[in-house]
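User: Just a sanity check before I run the rest of the batch. Below are the structure tokens for the first item. I only need the designed sequence back.
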């Protein structure tokens, strides 16, 4: 047995003496079983068709314009951080003719749509917000409010002169490769026709709001909206609060995920009465947000952001670092949950011993979080209902210093729907759980997003490659890419996203790396006069095998979890197709590939 294994075993034995493992396992299983539903992921409704008004843009009035027919060198679909950083890097390398396209009314992506009161990023802003040094700013808060992040996205647009040709309120409806002229024919919902040499898609992963499949949802006659389309016209106030329109309203918030826990304290402050409809409680760790120390900001030297981002991604990936610069709930979590967050496996330790210690550390962490609920929440029954009973990474961890406290307010009622399996039905005037109806004026759905529904994967943007084959046809046996970016038969098309690529909780850092890689490929193609960039079938198949061979199999873990979008509502598979060894190793893979093999994708 190795020294590392012995050390792990000793630590596990110590914890096992303090923790009733069997009782906790049984409790977790019981909670999972009562939440499992036969309809799984099909329980939800898309915010489309007769529910389309839930997805309408409440922030920017639609502006009519004439269709545009033009040639463009680089078309970027998506004006969130992925698209913005790609376009910024292309500008830096001298590309003038760039056109960004987005359905939203401005830049920001997620941060354009999500403006609900209390919105903050739950990743440290100094590592989350991209291009801080290039824009010449330091965030004002450790965890930035959404509006600051949205403004930053707009500032990137200004800094890199990206507003120039951007088309907002425009959705690409078809991409069709023209082999004769080696360009993409692009159609939009505004009747535009572009002939684009390169097309880059960064259309997001959690973009389409979803609604719970509650019987009678359409009969409700009060006001209703989704958190990602907050109706300030009705509530008054802004993302900082001041929701004066709710002063005489009984409000229901449905959902207690990462969004719900940010929204609840603000609605609690201003509504006459708030009912929080909870099915599964989130974990609520300490947030400890604070303003940026001006002395620290003044002391930062060029290159500071990249250094800090590197430090964060290495820390949470289990790669060696001298010091954890961020020191927050995520980096702490990564120390005890390495396998679940990053897929990193310490090979010097016997897997069974590592797994045993992981589980015990998890129980310990969850015990602490449940104890925190008891410390904060005064009413014992409410506290009991707010306690999460599952393994820590079964759901996205939550952090807040305001959420649990809100349940001590006399105008806030927690409605635990777990026994009823969620909300039973809605009526014209309220929300019913079991036999009890809660009469409300307004229902706010904090019920999350369709996963993987955006862009090319869903077929909402049909992509016809060489010979008229669609991308989805080419992927009939599963996605086939080289490094997640390019696909044989679809020249000069680059995709950003987690598919067959690295993933991390700081997803914007991943997008930043992807953007730099794609911009570099385009730069090389232009410099070498390549007609197009396209992987060979052999290179692509080799990468598909790498993804399969090195995938971390978390399915057993996920199968034991309470349902949620992390485990496709209780089906064992997470559907994860990311690069198993994690983002730090992935970056090395790309660097080596660029040094040795980049010419293989440049077709003259
Ligand atoms: P989630 O999918 O995480 O949560 C949806 C919530 O709605 C859950 O609490 C769910 O309960 C509940 N729900 C669904 N159907 C019903 C029903 N029929 N009755 C009662 N409750 C129901 O969505 P979020 O918007 O909270 O978060 C989505 C993702 O967005 C996050 O995981 C994160 O990746 C991202 N995000 C990031 C933030 C950041 O700061 N970086 C902030 C906010 C979101 P149940 O758990 O039982 O299914």
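Assistant: Here's the designed sequence for the first item:
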């Amino acid at each position: 047995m190795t020294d590392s294994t012995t050390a792990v075993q000793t630590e596990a034995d110590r914890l096992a003496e303090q923790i009733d493992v069997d009782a906790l396992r049984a409790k977790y299983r019981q909670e999972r079983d009562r939440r499992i539903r036969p309809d799984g992921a099909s329980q939800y409704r898309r915010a489309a068709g007769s529910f389309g008004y839930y997805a309408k843009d409440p922030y920017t009035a639609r502006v009519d314009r004439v269709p545009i027919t033009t040639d463009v060198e680089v078309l970027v679909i998506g004006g969130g951080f992925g698209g913005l950083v790609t376009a910024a890097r292309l500008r830096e390398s001298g590309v003038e003719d760039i056109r960004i396209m987005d359905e939203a009314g401005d830049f920001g992506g997620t941060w354009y749509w999500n403006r609900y009161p209390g919105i903050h990023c739950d990743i440290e802003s100094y590592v989350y917000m991209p291009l801080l040094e290039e824009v010449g700013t330091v965030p004002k808060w450790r965890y930035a409010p959404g509006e600051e992040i949205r403004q930053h996205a707009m500032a990137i647009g200004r800094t890199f002169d990206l507003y120039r040709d951007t088309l907002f309120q425009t959705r690409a409806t078809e991409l069709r490769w023209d082999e004769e002229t080696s360009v993409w024919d692009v159609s939009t919902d505004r009747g535009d026709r572009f002939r684009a040499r390169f097309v880059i898609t960064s259309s997001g992963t959690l973009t389409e709001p979803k609604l719970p499949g509650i019987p009678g949802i359409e009969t409700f006659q009060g006001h209703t909206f989704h958190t990602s389309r907050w109706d300030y016209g009705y509530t008054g106030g802004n993302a900082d609060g001041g929701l004066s329109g709710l002063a005489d309203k009984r409000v229901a918030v449905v959902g207690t995920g990462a969004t719900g826990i940010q929204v609840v304290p603000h609605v609690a402050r201003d509504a006459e009465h708030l009912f929080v409809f909870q099915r599964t409680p989130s974990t609520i760790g300490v947030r400890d947000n604070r303003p940026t120390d001006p002395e620290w900001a003044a002391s930062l030297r060029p290159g500071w952001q990249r250094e800090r981002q590197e430090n964060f991604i290495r820390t949470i990936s289990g790669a060696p670092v001298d010091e954890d610069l961020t020191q927050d709930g995520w980096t702490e979590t990564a120390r005890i949950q390495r396998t679940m967050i990053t897929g990193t496996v310490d090979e010097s330790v016997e897997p069974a011993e590592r797994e045993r210690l992981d589980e015990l550390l998890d129980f310990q962490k969850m015990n602490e979080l449940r104890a925190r609920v008891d410390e904060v929440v005064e009413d014992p029954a409410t506290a009991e209902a707010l306690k999460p009973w599952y393994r820590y990474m079964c759901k996205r961890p939550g952090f807040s210093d305001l959420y649990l406290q809100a349940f001590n307010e006399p105008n806030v009622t927690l409605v635990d729907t777990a026994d009823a399996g969620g909300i039973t039905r809605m009526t014209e005037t309220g929300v019913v759980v079991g036999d009890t109806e809660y009469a409300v004026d307004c229902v706010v759905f904090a019920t999350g997003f369709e996963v993987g529904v955006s862009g090319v994967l869903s077929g909402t943007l049909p992509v016809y490659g060489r010979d008229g084959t669609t991308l989805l046809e080419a992927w009939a046996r599963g996605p086939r890419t080289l490094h997640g970016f390019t696909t044989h038969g679809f020249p000069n098309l680059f995709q950003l996203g987690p598919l067959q690529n690295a993933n991390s909780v700081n997803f914007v850092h991943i997008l930043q790396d992807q953007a730099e890689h794609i911009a570099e490929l385009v730069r090389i193609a232009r410099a070498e006069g390549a007609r197009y960039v396209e992987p060979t079938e052999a290179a692509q198949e080799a990468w598909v095998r790498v993804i399969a061979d090195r995938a971390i199999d978390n399915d057993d873990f996920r199968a034991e979890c309470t349902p949620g979008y992390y485990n496709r509502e209780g089906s064992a598979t997470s559907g994860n197709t990311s690069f198993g060894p994690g983002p730090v190793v992935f970056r090395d893979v790309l660097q080596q590939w660029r040094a040795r093999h980049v010419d293989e994708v440049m077709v003259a």
